[in-house]
Every structure is written in structure tokens, then in C-alpha cells.
Design goal:
InterPro entries: Beta-gal/glucu_dom_sf (IPR036156), DUF4982 (IPR032311), Galactose-bd-like_sf (IPR008979), GH (IPR017853), GH2_Domain-Containing (IPR051913), Glyco_hydro2_dom5 (IPR040605), Glyco_hydro_2 (IPR006101), Glyco_hydro_2_cat (IPR006103). The protein is mainly beta and about 800 residues long. It has ten helices and 50 strands. The protein is globular. The two termini are about 20 Å apart.
């Protein structure tokens, strides 16, 4: 089938306004809504308002195209499709990709498609959802005979053979060609064919080689249709000895990630997803868990190209509502099979997808009814794809409570998840309490109630997934030595101990931390807050907007402990320095269960001379030495990858960390320098040329630096961004935890000296001019070329 970009020039209308806007997809309607403390979405959805939205588009239909199919990858939520005023399809779940046949409803000439996304009733999610058509739409057209969209399914037989199955409509014969780069290396005939690939190159995290498969539909020597798909040759196996990719025992260094793209809201662009995947890979992660809904095709493609393993996840609920207006129970029971089919249809040819998770923290797994449904879902997944294992992110505390009839999520009026951690008390006692909670959840994972739940689920799931259940690992290994299991959700601060267990327990295959990348909503969950000792005011004004639980922030800046992670994983020998922020001496620092540090790699703090701070050296050695302006501040033993120096007085200049072995010999050194001179704006674009396709993005990292080019950590100020020419501003913001700014206004306050600009290309060639200004700082400009093929 011919594929037509159907993203351009939609008429957008919100139920709150009579105004009609022309928008290009993807488009997040929620990011445009007002944020208010009184909005019922609450902290879960970052206080954004809900709404009902209409997207309309006129297009011409040529009757020679007998078959017309529209593909919608993501519409949040309760979508209804109308063609020429007649409703022809619907889908409640906001993360389901689906195909709609338009053929029988079209007439010759002009037609109008309308897509309604109804997100008016909130809260309906525990985290930021976005709204509207936030992923791409495509139009497929063909004559009488064609290959179905996603009708080519490629699976690996062994390390040099693949099976290719083609679904078609109408008549014709199928011819299959496999390309290595531009060279045909194998070919065959038939819609169910196995091909041997000579000198085959396998796909894995270290060598993510991709082949191309071209499937042709031919009749009487005439080409009726053709499809090109990329794939990787890789095998999977799992048992009590571990998880194997191409026969190699593989440990998963995992990051849980939500679907939003920070300053872009829920919108999925290829450039944004590729950038995120690249930063995650550079931070040492080799796997991501798509939490808690199916991953975008753009991110799948990026993981294929870069070599990142994917645990794709279906839902955050089944039968029991976690929010009053989510899709649990009735809608779930009606639609779950279609949702499963949608996910597998999207994932099947992607070598990066190595397992399916059929849910997250489903409390009813502690009940017979929930376990029966779990078995039904797992078997249904296997019907469509038997090549990948089935898992589930099980919170054994919640399931154990449900088993006793004391479920946390109990009825449709449940408001859990809609509140913000930002309003919680700030005290030393509360800090202790929050950290104790993590220990309690972990401890309960090895209780008798948890044992019973695990016994019931073990025959159902191929791989057991446990959230916050480190205490269970040794018991699980001994109880079920023939089955592997995974830490599907863990705390970043527990990585050292968790990874020791991963390396020592053969059937524990990895660890997925919450979270690898920070996200919008579930506000304040992991944010380390600063509250004034006298006034009790938050150091950061405005409504909370982010979770704050990621080791990489929403703009893609790695936190200091990313180096700690890499040292634990054996990926880095060079020491790193983490400095506790020191610009708030009159404020109390409040920790979180999810985050016990917000230290940064910086020794540049204006107007902080004499302030005291704690410094953590992340190191692989036995001890570490701290040196300030050439003077040693002593040596400390390295415990669990850290050497902590307390009450270090800030003096501008140079601070160094020295990594020492057991003999005291230096085995690594790193240094941080203070910024000097006046503040200037620094702009760094990730590309200088875009295509006029309406989809390409340029990310511009903005920094406040001194005259020596070093970042000024606490010189934060409000920034103005103006875009002109052949593109538009898609988003602009920073990782500041609380704000009254909007990502679409062009005005935002930096956070720890940084902000991020996303510029979107239009459909015409030319130049995009970006101007950035702030009070008292010289304006900076940058120009981006837009040219080439769409």
C-alpha cells in the first residue's frame, strides 16, 4: 500500500473556545491547557486541565484507490472517528494504535475526517497523559490487491535464518528479498517462507545490525504492491540460568521511562525519541521498560538502531480503578484483546523488544479473579507472539493486601495518585518516614502473603517481574531455581545492593530503576525540596510540574549519580564529583523515598562563598582524596562506590577527586572548575539543517556560562525565545520542579543554569532564526537551514 503522511493542516477545536487553529500532528492538546491547583487532575497530571477536542481534515479521494486505511498511533483518549459526519470507529484506550478502514464510507472527491479525543473527565491517570492526537497518523491506499499494513511479520529461526510471513488481500504472488545494506543476500517466493542468510550478522546491544526485507506482490509480471521492513537477527532464551540474547547471558541495566517527552508534552517525534534513547544508552542503560503503556514506534526504531532492549508494557490497571475516570473494569474487559493485538502488531518486527509486560502493580493479582485474568491475558499474548516472554510488574505489598481483602485501590471513587507530594510536610522526621516506607514495601515482598501470590503467578508468567522487592530475590532464587525473574521497578539509591544480587543470583536477570528519565506529572514524587526554615515557603515558586524521580532530567541532563551507576555496572573507571546544592543555607532539605540525592557535578556557585556543603566522590577504588585549590581535604574510604566529605566550605577555584587503590596509588582523577566573569548565554544546536517535512526537530541546549565557558549553577533567570522563518517553537523549558511558565509560551526560567529549546521545521525550505534573550545578558541568535527532500 502507498503510505501518505496525514499529519499536515488539521483544524483543531477545543470545547473551551470557539477559535479554530490549524495544527500539524503530532499535537498535544493538554500542554496548551491552563494549570491550576483546583484542576481535578491534581498533581498526578501536573494540574493541567482536561478537555474535549476535535480534529478535522478535508481530503480528496480517487476511486482508483479501492482500499483506504487510516492508521492512528496514539489518541488520548476515548477517540471517535467520523467520516463525512458518520461515526465509523472508536477506541477508549489512549495508548492503543489502530487501523480504520475508510473504503466503504468514502465518496469520490472531497471527504472530511473528524477525530474526537475526549479527555474532559479527570483524574483518569496517575501521571501526565497529554491529550489529543499526540502520535502520527498515516493514510494507506491501494487497489484491489495489496499487502496489509503491518502484514509482514519477520521472526528469527536461529542465528542465520528468518521466517517471513505475509498477509495480503486479493490476488497475486509474494516475492521476498533480504538486503544487507544495498545488496540482496537472500530471496524466496511465498507468503510463508524461511530464508537462510549467508554470513549473517546478529543484532544485540553491542552490534545492533539491521537488515532490510522487501516484500513484493506480483501478478502477471506486474508489481501490485511492495513493503520494506527493517529487522534484526536475534534469538532469545530464558531459564534458571539467566536470560540469553543470541546465546549470550545478558544482564539488563534497565531504566523505567514514561511516554512523555518533557518540554514537548506527550508528542512523539523521531528526533526526540532518538535523542532520548541515545542519552539513555550513553548513561549506561542497555534496556528500558515502557511504563506503563505501549511504546511509540519512533522510540522502538531508535532502540533498534542504537541497541537497547525493550520491555513493552500494556496497562497500569485491569479491573480495579486507580483513578475515578480511568479505563479499568468495563472498558478494559471489552477492549483488552484489541489492545494486546495493537501492541504486538507494532512490536513484532523490532528486535529491540525482548519481552512483554501485561500490567503494572495490578493489585487484583492477589485474588483468584485477578490471577485467572492474568492467565487469560498471558496466553492471549502468546497466541500472537510465542517468541518473547511474558512478564508483569508485580507489587507484592499491594497484591498481598488485596489477597487479604484490603486493597489500596478499592473502588471507582478512588483518588489515589491524583495528589502531589509537594504538599507533604518537610521535617527530619518525615524524611526518615519516607525512607522507611521503601524498606516496608521491600520487606513485605518476602511475607507469607507475598509467597502465596508468587506461587500462584509463577505458572502463568514466563518471567516474574517484581517492583520494590529486593528482599524477595534470594528466596525466589531458591524457591524457583528453574525460572528467571527481574527487578521490574526499583529505587535508584538501591542500585549498588541490587546489582550485587543481579551478578550473584543466576536467575535474576536485571534491574529497572524508577526512573531512568524524569517525567511530567506524579509531581514531587522524587523531588528533593527546599523549604524556608521560617516562612515555610518553597524555594521554587509555582505549581509542581515534574516527578523529580529521574536520574536524567526532563531535558536530558544526567544527574551526578549517573556516574555512580556506570561505576557499579563496570562501565566507568574515572571518578566523578557530586556536590550538594549550596545556594539555600536558610532552607530545610526534604528527601524522598525515590531520591536521596540531588547533587550535581559543579563547583560554580555565585554568592555562596563560605557556605558549607557535602561532596560525594563516586569511585571504583578503595579510597578517595578530595583536593581544593591544590590543598588536600583528606582521604575517605569508598563504601558502596561512594566517599562522602561533609561540611566542605565553598571557595571558588578548582576541586579535584582522586581515586586510589588498596596501596594508595592513584588510578583516576577528575576536576571541576568555577565559572569566572560575567554571565553569557551559550547555545548548542544538535543539528544545523532540517528537512521541510513538518516533523524534524532541532534541539538547542541553552546554558548560562561565565566568560571561561563554565556553567553557572545558580545564576538562573527568565529567558525569552523568539522563532521566525521556516519553522516554529515546539517547546521551551527547563527541569525546574515548580513553575508558572508554559512550555509553549517562549518564556521560561532556567534550572541550574540550563534550559532546552525544541524547534520544529515547517513544510517550506528556508531558514529558521532563533533569538534568545534575558535581562542583563547579551542576546544570542542561531540560524538553522531547512532544505532537501521532505
Amino acid at each position: 500500500m502507498k503510505i501518505r503522511d496525514f499529519n499536515r493542516d488539521w483544524e483543531f477545536h477545543s470545547d473551551k473556545s470557539a477559535e479554530v487553529q490549524i495544527v500539524n500532528l503530532p499535537h498535544d492538546a493538554m500542554i496548551m491547557e491552563n494549570r491550576d491547583k483546583s484542576n481535578p487532575s491534581g498533581g498526578a497530571c501536573a494540574y493541567f486541565d482536561g478537555g474535549k477536542y476535535s480534529y478535522k481534515k478535508k481530503f480528496n479521494h480517487d476511486e482508483e484507490n479501492k482500499n483506504v486505511i487510516m492508521y492512528c498511533e496514539g489518541i488520548y483518549q476515548n477517540s471517535k472517528i467520523l467520516l463525512n459526519g458518520e461515526m465509523i470507529d472508536e477506541r477508549p484506550y489512549g495508548y492503543a494504535a489502530y487501523y480504520i478502514s475508510l473504503s466503504e464510507h468514502l465518496h469520490s472527491g472531497e471527504n472530511e475526517i473528524e477525530i474526537i479525543a475526549d479527555n474532559a473527565d479527570t483524574p483518569n491517570t496517575r501521571y501526565y497523559s497529554g491529550a489529543g492526537i499526540y502520535r502520527n497518523i498515516s493514510l494507506f491506499t491501494a487497489g484491489e490487491s495489496y499487502i496489509l499494513p503491518d502484514g509482514v511479520r519477520i521472526s528469527t529461526i536461529n542465528n542465520d535464518s528468518v521466517h517471513i510471513k505475509t498477509e495480503m488481500h486479493g490476488t497475486g504472488s509474494v516475492h521476498v528479498l533480504v538486503y544487507e545494506d544495498d545488496v540482496v543476500v537472500a530471496e524466496g517466493d511465498g507468503n510463508d517462507v524461511t530464508l537462510k542468510i549467508p554470513n549473517a550478522k546478529t543484532w544485540d546491544e553491542e552490534s545492533p545490525f539491521l537488515y532490510s526485507c522487501k516484500v513484493e506482490l506480483i501478478e502477471s509480471g506486474k508489481l501490485l504492491d511492495s513493503v520494506m521492513k527493517r529487522f534484526g537477527i536475534r534469538t532469545l532464551a530464558w531459564n534458571g540460568n539467566g536470560f540469553f540474547v543470541n546465546g549470550k547471558n545478558t544482564l539488563l541495566r534497565g531504566a523505567c521511562v514514561h511516554h512523555d517527552n518533557g518540554i514537548l508534552g506527550a508528542c512523539s517525534f523521531r528526533d526526540a525519541e532518538y535523542r532520548r534513547a541515545k542519552i539513555l544508552k550513553e548513561a549506561g542503560f542497555n534496556a528500558i521498560r515502557s511504563s506503563h503503556n505501549p511504546i511509540s514506534s519512533h522510540l522502538l526504531e531508535a532502540c533498534d538502531e542504537l541497541g537497547i532492549y525493550v520491555m513493552d508494557e500494556t496497562w497500569d490497571y485491569w479491573l480495579v480503578h486507580k483513578n475515578p475516570y480511568d479505563q479499568a473494569n468495563e472498558n478494559f474487559l471489552k477492549w483488552w484483546k484489541q489492545d494486546v493485538e495493537s501492541m504486538i502488531q507494532t512490536d513484532y518486527n523490532h528486535p529491540s523488544v525482548i519481552m512483554y509486560s501485561i500490567g503494572n502493580e495490578i493489585s487484583e493479582l492477589g485474588t483468584v479473579k485477578g490471577q485467572e485474568l492474568c492467565n487469560e491475558i498471558a496466553n492471549y499474548v502468546r497466541e500472537f507472539d510465542e517468541t518473547r516472554p511474558v512478564t508483569c510488574g508485580v507489587n507484592l505489598l499491594l497484591a498481598g493486601m488485596a489477597k487479604k481483602g484490603k486493597g489500596l485501590y478499592s473502588d471507582s471513587d478512588n483518588k489515589n495518585g491524583s495528589q502531589s507530594m509537594d504538599s507533604m510536610p518537610t521535617s527530619a522526621f518525615y524524611n526518615v518516614l519516607m525512607n522507611k516506607m521503601g524498606g516496608l514495601i521491600d520487606k513485605m515482598a518476602s511475607s507469607k502473603a507475598a509467597d502465596s501470590v508468587c506461587d500462584s503467578l509463577s505458572p502463568i508468567l514466563d518471567i516474574a517481574g517484581y517492583n520494590y522487592a529486593t528482599s524477595r530475590y534470594q528466596k525466589e532464587s531458591k524457591t524457583r531455581p528453574d525460572k528467571c525473574f527481574v527487578g521490574s521497578e526499583t529505587l535508584p539509591k538501591t542500585l549498588y545492593g541490587n546489582w550485587k544480587l543481579v551478578k550473584s543470583i543466576p536467575n535474576l536477570i536485571g534491574d529497572f530503576m524508577w526512573t531512568g528519565w524524569d517525567y511530567l506529572g506524579e509531581t514531587g514524587l522524587g523531588t528533593i525540596r527546599y523549604v524556608h526554615k521560617k516562612t515555610k515557603e518553597n524555594a521554587y515558586k509555582g505549581l509542581p510540574i515534574i516527578s523529580g524521580s529521574g536520574v536524567i532530567d526532563i531535558c536530558g541532563t544526567p544527574q551526578a549519580e549517573v556516574a555512580w551507576n556506570k561505576i557499579i555496572w563496570g562501565l566507568q573507571d574515572e571518578p566523578a564529583i557530586g556536590v550538594d546544592p549550596m545556594q539555600f543555607p536558610e532552607y530545610t532539605r526534604a528527601m524522598s523515598m525515590w531520591r536521596n540525592t540531588d547533587c550535581v557535578e559543579s563547583w560554580s556557585w555565585e554568592d555562596c562563598d563560605g557556605n558549607k556543603t557535602n561532596i560525594t566522590i563516586y569511585a571504583s577504588g578503595v579510597s578517595a582524596e578530595l583536593i581544593l585549590n591544590g590543598r588536600s581535604l583528606g582521604k575517605k574510604k569508598v563504601k558502596e562506590g561512594k566517599a562522602i566529605f561533609k561540611n566542605v566550605k565553598y571557595i571558588p577555584g578548582k576541586i579535584e577527586a582522586v581515586n586510589l587503590d588498596a596501596t594508595g596509588k592513584e588510578i583516576g582523577r577528575t576536576a571541576l572548575q568555577s565559572a569566572t566573569g560575567n554571565t553569557t548565554l551559550k547555545l548548542e544546536a544538535d543539528k544545523m539543517q532540517l528537512r521541510p517535512n513538518g516533523q524534524d526537530l532541532c534541539f538547542i541546549e541553552l546554558s548560562l556560562v561565565g566568560e571561561n565557558g563554565i556553567l553557572k549553577m545558580n545564576a538562573d533567570t527568565e529567558i525569552n525565545v523568539r522563532i521566525s522563518g521556516a519553522g516554529t517553537l515546539q517547546g521551551f523549558g527547563s527541569a525546574v520542579p515548580n513553575t508558572e511558565n508554559s512550555f509553549i509560551s517562549g518564556i521560561y526560567t532556567t534550572y541550574r543554569g540550563r534550559a532546552l529549546i525544541a524547534v520544529r521545521t515547517g513544510y517550506e525550505e528556508g531558514e529558521i532564526h532563533v533569538s534568545v534573550s534575558a535581562d542583563g545578558i547579551s542576546e544570542q541568535t542561531i540560524s538553522i537551514q531547512v532544505k532537501g527532500e521532505e
